[in-house]
Amino acid sequence: MMRFLFSLIFFGMLSAILNTACSTTTMTSDWKDREYQRKPLKIMVIGVTKKPENKRIFEDEFVRQLKTWGTDAVASYTVIPDEMQGDHAVIAAKMKEEGADAVLISRLANKKTVYASVPEKGIHPPYFYGNWREYYGYGSKVVYTSEYTAEDEYALMEINLYNARNDKLIWTALSETDFLGSDRNQIISYIGVMVKAMVDRKLLQWELWRKHSEAGYIGNRNPMSQ
Questions:
Q1: How far, in Å, CA of 169 to CA of 152, rounded?
Q2: pLDDT digits (tens, 9 = 90+) for 135-170
Q3: What order of strands is seen across the sheet that includes strand 42-48?
Q4: How buried is 121 (Cβ within 10 angstroms: 0-12 exposed, 13-18 middle, 19+ buried)?
Q5: pTM of the model
Q6: Within a 10 A sphere around the Cβ of 33, how many other Cβ atoms?
Q7: Upper half-sphere CA count for residue 2 (Cβ side, 13 Å)
Q8: For residue 111, is it within any domain?
Q9: Which residue has the higher pLDDT, 3 or 200?
Q10: Domain count, the chain
């Protein structure tokens, strides 16, 4: 009996530790249109998810981090009602109304379970190079099955940035995020890696932000120190 109680306590503590652990995101690949030389001035952020609370967390955090790097942004849920989120005409109209010259759409492309006998590298979903209207309704499912005990689970995330002027794809990336920790931790981990990639790809207004900061036009808050 004591051994049974000890096991319950041990696994309960282990579960609590895992639930508070930080998630890790790894970008597996990305692509940028070389012909696109501008930087978006304002981005509408759309998180495609079945959980409304996760959509709000995702969009708010992405907007916050984009603004930290000097690029204005707006969360779609703040200007588009839930029942209109799938209406492309409404989304386009709101982007124009908000002055957004780009739209960023992210979704869970798939889930991957790594088993003891399965190599860690899974099959990634293909890129989708259409316009944002087609991509918004695009989805694919891949089922991973095995008779062995699961070891790790990953979310395969896809993110696309589109030019609002012509609907063309500017940048796309695939990544893997482990399922350690809460949904919020997973979201924050994912967004941090994606925003860093956008900075590296020179898609954000970081240089303009720095010039204004040095000139004293805005607060001296360096994103690199956060």
A1: 32
A2: 665 543 333 344 445 467 888 899 999 999 999 999
A3: 25-32, 169-178, 150-163, 102-115, 42-48, 72-75
A4: exposed
A5: 0.69
A6: 14
A7: 0
A8: yes
A9: 200
A10: 1
Q: Which of 93-97, 118-122, 142-146 has the lowest mean pLDDT?
A: 142-146
Give a yes or no: residue 16 inside a domain: no
Domain membership of residue 194 (yes or no) is yes
* C-alpha distance from residue 75 to each of 44, 46, 80, 208 (Å): 6, 7, 9, 22
| 200 domain residue, yes or no | yes
Strand partners, 115: 150
Q: Which domain holds residue 136?
A: 23-32+39-217
Q: pLDDT at position 112, please?
A: 78
pLDDT digits (tens, 9 = 90+) for 165-215: 999 999 999 999 887 667 888 898 899 999 999 999 999 986 655 554 555
Q: What DSSP designation does 214 have?
A: H
DSSP-based three-state secondary structure for 57: helix
- Do the beta carbons of residue 218 and residue 212 sit within 8 Å? yes
102, two tokens: 């780009």
β-pairing verdict for 72-75 and 150-163: unpaired
